[in-house]
Write a structure and sequence with these properties.
Layout (H helix, E strand, L loop, with lengths): L22 H4 L1 H10 L18 H10 L11 H6 L3 H19 L2 H4 L3 H15 L1 H4 L10
Protein backbone atom coordinates (compact mmCIF):
# COMPACT_ATOMS: atom_id res chain seq x y z
CA UNK A 1 0.00 0.00 0.00
CA UNK A 2 1.23 3.47 -0.84
CA UNK A 3 1.77 6.20 1.74
CA UNK A 4 -1.54 8.00 2.21
CA UNK A 5 -0.20 11.13 3.85
CA UNK A 6 -0.13 12.62 7.27
CA UNK A 7 -2.66 11.17 9.65
CA UNK A 8 -2.65 14.52 11.39
CA UNK A 9 -3.99 16.30 8.32
CA UNK A 10 -7.54 17.46 8.51
CA UNK A 11 -9.29 14.87 6.37
CA UNK A 12 -12.78 15.66 5.27
CA UNK A 13 -14.38 12.60 3.75
CA UNK A 14 -17.21 12.34 1.32
CA UNK A 15 -19.45 11.33 4.20
CA UNK A 16 -19.33 14.86 5.57
CA UNK A 17 -22.05 16.01 3.18
CA UNK A 18 -24.57 14.23 5.38
CA UNK A 19 -22.74 14.59 8.65
CA UNK A 20 -23.65 17.71 10.51
CA UNK A 21 -24.89 18.00 14.07
CA UNK A 22 -27.54 15.40 13.21
CA UNK A 23 -25.41 13.25 10.90
CA UNK A 24 -25.63 10.11 12.97
CA UNK A 25 -29.42 10.41 13.10
CA UNK A 26 -29.72 11.21 9.38
CA UNK A 27 -28.15 7.90 8.43
CA UNK A 28 -30.21 5.80 10.83
CA UNK A 29 -32.66 4.60 8.16
CA UNK A 30 -29.80 3.79 5.78
CA UNK A 31 -27.93 1.86 8.50
CA UNK A 32 -31.09 -0.14 9.25
CA UNK A 33 -31.72 -0.86 5.56
CA UNK A 34 -28.17 -2.01 4.96
CA UNK A 35 -28.08 -3.97 8.24
CA UNK A 36 -31.20 -5.88 7.18
CA UNK A 37 -29.97 -6.48 3.62
CA UNK A 38 -26.67 -7.77 4.98
CA UNK A 39 -28.38 -9.91 7.64
CA UNK A 40 -26.46 -8.26 10.46
CA UNK A 41 -27.48 -7.46 14.01
CA UNK A 42 -27.59 -4.11 15.78
CA UNK A 43 -24.42 -5.11 17.62
CA UNK A 44 -22.63 -5.69 14.30
CA UNK A 45 -23.10 -2.07 13.26
CA UNK A 46 -22.01 -0.42 16.48
CA UNK A 47 -18.95 1.82 16.30
CA UNK A 48 -15.84 -0.16 17.17
CA UNK A 49 -12.09 0.11 17.01
CA UNK A 50 -11.84 -2.22 14.02
CA UNK A 51 -13.91 -2.89 10.94
CA UNK A 52 -14.55 -6.64 10.78
CA UNK A 53 -14.34 -8.47 7.47
CA UNK A 54 -17.99 -9.57 7.61
CA UNK A 55 -19.12 -5.92 7.35
CA UNK A 56 -18.01 -5.49 3.73
CA UNK A 57 -21.44 -5.97 2.14
CA UNK A 58 -23.03 -3.67 4.71
CA UNK A 59 -20.46 -1.01 3.81
CA UNK A 60 -21.07 -1.57 0.10
CA UNK A 61 -24.80 -1.04 0.62
CA UNK A 62 -24.09 2.16 2.55
CA UNK A 63 -21.62 3.60 0.01
CA UNK A 64 -23.82 2.60 -2.92
CA UNK A 65 -26.77 4.45 -1.40
CA UNK A 66 -24.54 7.50 -0.97
CA UNK A 67 -23.83 7.11 -4.73
CA UNK A 68 -20.06 6.91 -4.35
CA UNK A 69 -20.02 3.26 -5.46
CA UNK A 70 -21.95 1.79 -8.37
CA UNK A 71 -23.84 -1.50 -8.62
CA UNK A 72 -20.70 -3.30 -9.81
CA UNK A 73 -18.71 -2.10 -6.81
CA UNK A 74 -16.60 0.55 -8.46
CA UNK A 75 -15.68 3.39 -6.12
CA UNK A 76 -15.93 6.79 -7.78
CA UNK A 77 -13.55 9.28 -6.16
CA UNK A 78 -14.98 12.14 -8.24
CA UNK A 79 -18.51 11.40 -7.00
CA UNK A 80 -17.16 11.07 -3.45
CA UNK A 81 -15.44 14.45 -3.74
CA UNK A 82 -18.55 16.05 -5.23
CA UNK A 83 -20.59 14.74 -2.30
CA UNK A 84 -18.58 16.80 0.17
CA UNK A 85 -19.95 20.18 1.16
CA UNK A 86 -18.62 22.81 -1.24
CA UNK A 87 -16.54 24.73 1.28
CA UNK A 88 -14.73 21.51 2.30
CA UNK A 89 -14.44 19.89 -1.11
CA UNK A 90 -10.93 20.99 -2.08
CA UNK A 91 -9.48 20.02 1.31
CA UNK A 92 -10.97 16.53 1.01
CA UNK A 93 -9.99 15.80 -2.58
CA UNK A 94 -6.36 14.68 -1.94
CA UNK A 95 -7.31 12.24 0.81
CA UNK A 96 -10.19 10.70 -1.13
CA UNK A 97 -8.02 10.21 -4.21
CA UNK A 98 -5.10 9.00 -2.14
CA UNK A 99 -7.13 6.16 -0.61
CA UNK A 100 -8.65 5.34 -3.99
CA UNK A 101 -5.27 5.29 -5.74
CA UNK A 102 -3.69 3.20 -2.99
CA UNK A 103 -6.23 0.46 -3.46
CA UNK A 104 -6.94 0.81 -7.18
CA UNK A 105 -3.32 -0.10 -7.88
CA UNK A 106 -3.61 -3.20 -5.70
CA UNK A 107 -5.42 -5.77 -7.85
CA UNK A 108 -6.21 -8.02 -4.90
CA UNK A 109 -7.74 -5.27 -2.75
CA UNK A 110 -10.22 -3.62 -5.11
CA UNK A 111 -10.89 -6.12 -7.82
CA UNK A 112 -12.06 -8.99 -5.64
CA UNK A 113 -15.69 -7.89 -5.25
CA UNK A 114 -17.87 -4.93 -4.33
CA UNK A 115 -18.01 -5.83 -0.64
CA UNK A 116 -14.24 -6.08 -0.27
CA UNK A 117 -13.80 -2.81 -2.16
CA UNK A 118 -16.15 -1.04 0.26
CA UNK A 119 -14.38 -2.66 3.20
CA UNK A 120 -10.89 -1.61 2.09
CA UNK A 121 -11.93 1.93 1.18
CA UNK A 122 -13.66 2.40 4.54
CA UNK A 123 -10.66 0.98 6.40
CA UNK A 124 -8.41 3.45 4.59
CA UNK A 125 -10.67 6.36 5.47
CA UNK A 126 -10.87 5.20 9.10
CA UNK A 127 -7.12 4.91 9.37
CA UNK A 128 -6.45 8.36 7.96
CA UNK A 129 -9.38 10.29 9.44
CA UNK A 130 -10.07 8.86 12.90
CA UNK A 131 -11.69 12.03 14.23
CA UNK A 132 -14.16 12.21 11.35
CA UNK A 133 -14.67 8.46 11.12
CA UNK A 134 -16.47 8.57 14.43
CA UNK A 135 -19.12 10.95 13.06
CA UNK A 136 -19.48 9.64 9.50
CA UNK A 137 -22.72 7.90 10.30
CA UNK A 138 -21.79 4.47 8.95
CA UNK A 139 -21.98 2.82 12.35
CA UNK A 140 -24.26 3.33 15.34
CA UNK A 141 -22.58 5.39 18.04
CA UNK A 142 -21.84 3.51 21.24
CA UNK A 143 -23.76 5.08 24.09
Amino acid sequence: MKNIGSASSCLVLFFVICVNANGIVEHKALREKCRDESKLTDDDIKMSTMIADHLGCYLFCFLKDLEVMDDKGSFDPAAATDAVEEELREASRPEIYSCYESYSSDDDALNDNACSTALEMTRCFKEHAQNLYEVMGIFEPVV
